[in-house]
Amino acid sequence: MSDSSPLYCAVHTNIETGLRCNNCNKPICPKCAVRTPTGYRCKECVRNQQKIFNTASWYDPLISFVIAIVLSFLGSLLANVIGFFILFVAPIVGIVIAEAIRLAVQRRRSKRLFQAAALGAALGALPMLLIAILRLLNVGVGGFWGLLGLIWLAYYAFTVTTTTFYRLRGIRIG
Prior knowledge:
The protein is mainly α. It has helices at 43-53, 60-82, 86-104, 111-137, 143-169, and strands at 33-36, 39-42.
């Protein structure tokens, strides 16, 4: 036996819908629906769920920023020395930074945490990158090898930043 009366969105009461939040069962229209890995949810349920996962203390983003900037700078010194092999080492440095941050903040999570870590990783790589640019701009110094060094350092900066960001962003509860 089915109910033949039309169903209307809980927020937009003039929009007929057949969709319901898979968490609270509230009727929602496509404008209100948020696609999640487990189905569609209303914006209120998504907001409430995100609050549960934000467990970081106020100082955790600062800790992640400091760790990321220091380790990224040390990695950029290494990148300056090993050249081509940074292709293999840069992702590992990003993973090391992310894992050091996880240990330091005791696996607490927040959106600001991985954003601060990515900013720190980018800024940590910046000094050696700027030195390489200045070396290259100095006429007659570096030449082709200076350009190649700049490319390796730019690759390092991009890879370590993105690896750190996505590694921390993907923290799983467990």
